[in-house]
Design brief:
This protein has 319 residues and is of the alpha+beta class. The protein has two domains: 206 residues, DD-peptidase/beta-lactamase superfamily (Beta-lactamase, 3-Layer(aba) Sandwich); 99 residues, no CATH class. The protein has eleven helices and seven strands. Helix 2 crosses helix 9.
């Protein structure tokens, strides 16, 4: 399918405005790209509840687990660069991980949330990185690895971080900046420098009973689109189709068995939503990338109506 920019804008703009008027959005932005070109870029509202700071094109906002897609891409790239197969065991690169029955867990099982490490028996401070890693090393899987799928909401980032450090010898933040953010001029941060704080929108928790890592919305859609567009730097960075095929393969039968199918029925799409309503993905078949970010959270770990109806409209499902 080929998107017509004027038509998509005409259809999305009133829906985006309605997110503020009907669904109580405070500040938000949406970006749609296709074939390396921007189709729609909209932003509006405020960065604060006092409505003193307008949301601008360069506003940054926390996107929670939408960062998991970025982190996974970094790890897959590191595997490619070091000629590591995704079927290899995690303990080959992180020997201490082999404790408590985890010696056979593969990189594929870990990346697809099948490792059984979605929670910890030991109580640790999330800001104490080393303590969390030691707890993960000692943790017994909550189910036989590879037999079930369970979302590793709070542990996945630590697992990615430690593997990138072990394999590439640098932090995930540095890996992202050196291999993707700086070369592609992406305004997306894993670990925000203090100097960028003046641009950040304040996040507000969901309010019961009320309707509905930091990036600006354009950089999220830019990155995912570049991954599937021939000729782009990000696409060339994956020197073989290996990494991208692995990403698509993460739409596994275990995940497809869940009541909510991957990205609204777009079977080969990949990306990740974030708690409260943020959403970012790319559709390799149609070379489309989408990102929606906001600062007024909803009570949801999955994309909400505010983002999903925009996606439906892009694909003509709102007709």
């Amino acid at each position: 399918m080929q998107l017509e920019a004027s038509r998509v804008l005409q259809r999305l703009k009133p829906l985006f405005r309605e997110n503020f008027e009907k669904f109580g959005e405070l500040g938000a932005a949406v970006s749609v790209w296709q074939n390396g070109k921007p189709i729609v870029d909209l932003c509006g509202g405020f960065r604060d509840r006092r409505r003193e700071k307008s949301w601008a094109a360069d506003t940054l906002v926390l996107v929670w687990s939408a960062t998991k897609g970025i982190g996974s891409a970094c790890l897959l790239h590191a595997l490619q660069e070091h000629k590591i197969e995704i079927s290899q065991r995690v303990a080959e690169f992180w020997p201490e991980f082999a404790q408590a029955g985890k010696e056979k867990i593969t990189l594929a099982q870990l990346l697809s949330h099948q490792a059984g490490l979605c929670a910890l028996d030991r109580r640790v401070d999330v800001l104490d990185y080393e303590a969390v890693i030691r707890a993960l090393e000692a943790q017994k899987p909550l189910w036989p690895p590879g037999t079930a799928h369970g979302y590793h909401a709070r542990t996945f980032g630590f697992l990615l971080e430690e593997l990138v450090r072990r394999i590439a010898g640098k932090t995930l933040s540095d890996y992202w900046q050196q291999n993707f953010a700086r070369p592609l001029d992406l305004d997306f941060w894993v670990g925000l420098p203090e100097k960028e704080n003046p641009r950040v929108a304040t996040i507000y928790a969901a309010k019961p009973g009320k309707p509905p890592e930091s990036k600006n919305r354009q950089s999220g859609s830019d990155f995912y689109l570049d991954l599937v567009t021939p000729g782009t730097l990000a696409r060339k960075t994956f020197t073989s189709p290996y990494g991208l095929h692995v990403i698509s393969r993460m739409n596994s039968p275990a995940i497809r068995a869940q009541p909510i199918v991957s990205f609204g029925g777009i079977g080969r799409a990949f990306g990740h939503p974030g708690a409260g309503g943020s959403h970012a993905f790319t559709d390799p078949e149609n070379k489309i990338a989408f990102a929606y970010v906001m600062n007024q959270m909803e009570q949801s770990l999955l994309p909400t109506e505010k983002a999903l109806r925009l996606v439906d409209t892009i694909y003509g499902r709102g007709d």
